[in-house]
Design a protein that fits this description.
Structural class: alpha+beta
Strand order of the largest sheet: 1-2-3-4
Bound molecules: zinc ion
Radius of gyration: 19 Å
Strand content: 35-45%
Number of strands: 4
Distance between the termini: 41 Å
Largest sheet: 4 strands, antiparallel
Order of helices and strands: EEEEHH
């Protein structure tokens, strides 16, 4: 049964103007995306599993995983990554549990 697992979510994408595609030499066609990974339990996001990047040329469809990116694309990826924060809803499950615990604690004094 599929209860817990990992899911991915595109946090941000940007087509970088400076990057020239190493395969087809097209300018302004490389789209860099930051992908967030989260661990979920019964479809509720629980924990952040980090981020990674991919790039895709919109002209020739050449794509790179972040380990294999040419330096120029890697630079655009790191720049974009700087602006991306892990969304708070990645921790929804933890927040719900913490809230429930707090309510339980407070209800003793009410
Ligand atoms: Zn290309």
């Amino acid at each position: 049964m599929f209860i817990a697992g990992k899911k991915t979510f595109v946090l941000k994408s940007k087509t970088s103007k400076e990057v020239i595609c190493p395969t087809c030499s097209a300018k302004n066609s490389t789209k860099v995306s930051i992908i967030g990974v989260y661990k979920h339990l019964i479809q509720i996001p629980f924990l952040s599993g980090g981020k990674y990047g991919i790039s895709k040329c919109l002209n020739c469809n050449q794509h790179f995983e972040h380990q294999l990116m040419p330096d120029s694309i890697k630079l655009a990826y790191f720049e974009l990554k700087e602006t991306v924060k892990t969304p708070i809803w990645f921790y929804s499950g933890l927040i719900i549990i913490k809230t429930l615990v707090l309510i339980k604690i407070f209800s003793k004094y009410m």
